[in-house]
Specification:
This protein is of the alpha/beta class. It folds into 2 domains: 119 residues, Response regulator (Rossmann fold), CATH 3.40.50.2300; 90 residues, Orthogonal Bundle (Arc Repressor Mutant, subunit A), CATH 1.10.10.10. The chain is built from 8 helices and 11 strands. The strands form 3 sheets. Strands 2-1-3-4-5 form a 5-stranded parallel β-sheet, with helices on both faces. A 4-stranded antiparallel β-sheet has the order 6-7-8-9, covered by helices on one side. The longest helix has 15 residues. It is elongated. The two termini are 23 Å apart. The structure holds calcium ion (CA). Calcium ion (CA) binds next to loops.
């Protein structure tokens, strides 16, 4: 899953980038409203964390422009403006959640998890696909209760595929949701990571749909919990 962090405070940016990376997300950063608007319109993020007091264009205007332009990405506003009237303005501009500074990182991460699962149509806090389970709270996955040892990129790939299980996902879509914009994508092809995941999960869990992409689904006979 790939997140856009819009924040102009360098210390908070550093802190949040670390926390988000630890939690298994690819993170792009925009330090002002102009860049935020551009990235939000051109990159398919899974969610945005949006500060309101920003250089160049303020956060509420950015959000209004995105929504007018049919950018449907879930947006969590993270701001020092904590008055009820600011919250109403934020939600009415198209925000999906609102957290006032100062905040606890754990609460931000929990709200982000809730936002991501709701936008992908899931209600349960952990994801299942047959005997395969993934718990975004711990950034861990298991098969039949046996923990899987995954690298951060393997985990990110599995997380995205479990969020969208049963659907054929193209390579381009996977690339767009796995890597941040500065990542050297050429040397890290999706095929390689799919191959590694198959070794760890069992090859038959990820189906290759020729010319279209990959599909993660329960094995025949497995109940999807
Ligand atoms: Ca600010």
């Amino acid at each position: 899953m790939r997140i856009l962090l819009v924040e102009d405070d360098p210390d908070l940016t550093r802190q949040l980038k670390l926390a988000l990376a630890d939690a298994g997300y690819a993170v792009d950063h925009a330090p002002d409203g102009e860049e935020a608007q551009f990235l939000g319109e051109t990159e398919p993020y899974d969610a945005v964390i949006l500060d309101l007091g920003l250089p160049k264009v303020d956060g509420v205007s950015v959000l209004e422009r995105w929504r007018r332009g049919s950018v449907a990405t879930p947006v969590l506003i993270l701001t020092a403006r904590g008055a009820w009237s600011d919250k109403v303005a934020g939600f009415d501009a198209g925000a999906d959640d609102y957290l006032a500074k100062p905040f606890h990182t754990e609460e931000l991460l929990a709200r982000l998890r809730a936002l991501l699962r709701r936008s992908a149509g899931h209600a349960a806090p952990s994801l299942s696909c047959g005997a395969l389970r993934l718990d975004p709270r711990a950034a861990r996955a298991s098969v039949n209760g046996e923990p899987l040892r995954l690298t951060s990129l393997e985990y990110r790939l599995l997380h995205y595929m479990m969020m969208h299980q049963g659907r054929v996902i193209g390579r381009t879509e996977l690339v767009e949701h796995l890597y941040d914009q500065d990542f050297d994508r050429d040397s890290n092809t999706i095929e390689v990571f799919i191959g590694r995941l198959r070794k760890k999960l069992g090859a038959e869990r990820i189906e290759t749909v020729r010319g279209l992409g990959y599909r993660l689904a329960p094995l025949p006979g497995e109940e999807n919990a």
